[in-house]
Design goal:
The complex is a heterodimer of chains A (about 80) and B (about 425). Chain A is α+β, with helices and mostly antiparallel strands. Chain A has 4 helices and 2 strands, in the order H-H-H-E-E-H. With about 425 residues, chain B is of the alpha+beta class. Classes of the chains: A alpha+beta (about 80), B alpha+beta (about 425). Bound molecules: protoporphyrin IX containing FE (HEM) (2 copies) and iron/sulfur cluster (2 copies).
Chain lengths: ~80, ~425
Amino acid sequence: MDQETANKLVVEALQKKQKTKSKFYFSDLQDILGMKPREAKKYVNKMVEMGILEFWSSGSTTMYGLKGTGKQAAAEHED
Amino acid sequence: MAKHQTPLLDQLESGPWPSFVSDLKQEAEARAKNERNIEYQIPQDVVEDLMGVLELSYKDGTTHWKHGGIVGVFGYGGGVIGRYCDQPEQFPGVAHFHTMRVNQPAGKFYTTKYLKELCDLWEFRGSGLTNMHGSTGDIIFLGTTTPQLEEIFYELTHKHNQDLGGSGSNLRTPSDCIGQARCEYACYDTQALCHYLTNEYQDELHRPAFPYKFKFKFDGCPNCCVASIARADLSFVGTWRDEIQIDQEAVKAYVAGEFPPNAGAHAGRDWGPFDIQKEVIDRCPTGCMRYEDGKLEINNRECTRCMHCINVMPRALKPGKDRGCSILAGAKAPILDGAQMGSLLVPFIKVEEPYDEIKEVIEAIWDWWMEEGKNRERLGELMKRQGFQKLLEVTNIKPVPQHVQEPRTNPYIFWKEEEVPGGFERDIKEFRKHHQR
Ligand code: HEM
Ligand code: HEM
Ligand code: SF4
Ligand code: SF4
């Protein structure tokens, strides 16, 4: 899969869920891409580098979201 | 006059131990005076507001910190832990109060010059408050604002040759005991291995793609000064596979009271004359020692390498000469499912560059856990869920008696059909020739 296709897959899938969810586990992205973890990681890293995705961290757990969409409210269970 | 009244915090200073409250006050005062004319990049009264919000938390019985956040330095998924205060109007100095984890040098060796430089950087761009060292091993910078993060990261990496550590769902900052640099018990070079694996696994350290956190810790001997056996998903504990080295003359000298036991560590009180039977032989957990006619004997086959006898008589006893480490898997603190100690996976492995055998074990475990681990499931929990035998399978390690934790907990290593000649089907007619119904 080329990066473009991977980006499209992920962006579309995350946008679809945007109403209910803004933060995703790595395993969610891996499922969207349908890849083994190590392979998926390469694409996901690239998406962070390209500014498509960004990290959210509680300190102990890391999640991913579309850049600019992560609401802090979600962390305090307001949505 | 302090910015906020803090009677509840003040009370903490009345105990017998030095209090962090006194430290906070000292730093608050130093920042207020600013004798070195530092151009503080975050609010000068940050420490006062920190005490203020803590006092409020004590009063309310609840925290005033929000949970997590989207902060970090570009391209890194760890090393910065976003913290925001939920009372920013009352305490503007700590509206942002992010923590940074600085990857400590292996063995926590550094010069005072380096330490001063780090402190100067943090005084200038952060709160000046540090935690030396966090229980993770990192040098912890406590509290700065979002715009400072990239600036600090740039200076750390470009001026001080210093990286950030791990946080979140990635490899955490590997941490080790002081090892062969200072300690005669060290059975392998903990600093070399820790440093090597830190560099080797930079991607795992900075780009989170694990189900949850993952820790390596390195102890040079079973004394476990970094408590790897209790805290690390993979613990590397120094050990030996030949015989404890005995200097019989020195044993006699201990018995005669010429050397203080435990190198004098418990000398604060008169315990009476040293009694080798009571203090060493009877305390050996496996009962594998004997002292008769002035001669110490050890049945090394039964020794569990607990270190007790060596710790008591370090001039007489030394670890063996054929040294390496044991690898244990699955220890963790009690967040989700209760605390767990590591389970022995590799009883003995030589620790030699380029560490290929060790890396094979690590990577096989990661492949399994990344594939099978649920979100926020530590390795130890996956081991419980799928079984120790599964771990042996994925690491391609043959079961040995040392893998049996204790009789009747996991004594059965089951055969699979393909491992049994002829499989599980039998010829009933052939069987009936020898066995009646
Ligand atoms: C070489 C032959 C044998 C081997 C290797 C063997 C092995 C074992 C093992 C590993 C256990 C489980 C022990 C535990 O749970 O800690 C066991 C239990 C048992 N074995 Fe054997 N066994 C053998 C022969 C026999 C024979 C010939 C009999 C009876 C005629 C027998 C009767 C039992 C019984 C009744 C138990 C259950 C004991 C209990 O639940 O406390 N075994 N055996
Ligand atoms: C009057 C005769 C007997 C008495 C009073 C007796 C009593 C007991 C008792 C109290 C237990 C312990 C049960 C438990 O706490 O789990 C036991 C276990 C056992 N007995 Fe007996 N027993 C008798 C005869 C026999 C005979 C003749 C055999 C074998 C041919 C036998 C085989 C066993 C075995 C294999 C166990 C272990 C069962 C298990 O733990 O799963 N017993 N018996
Ligand atoms: S763990 Fe062992 S080798 Fe390391 S510092 Fe402690 S006593 Fe020494
Ligand atoms: S190291 Fe521990 S188990 Fe081994 S002989 Fe000494 S006291 Fe016994």
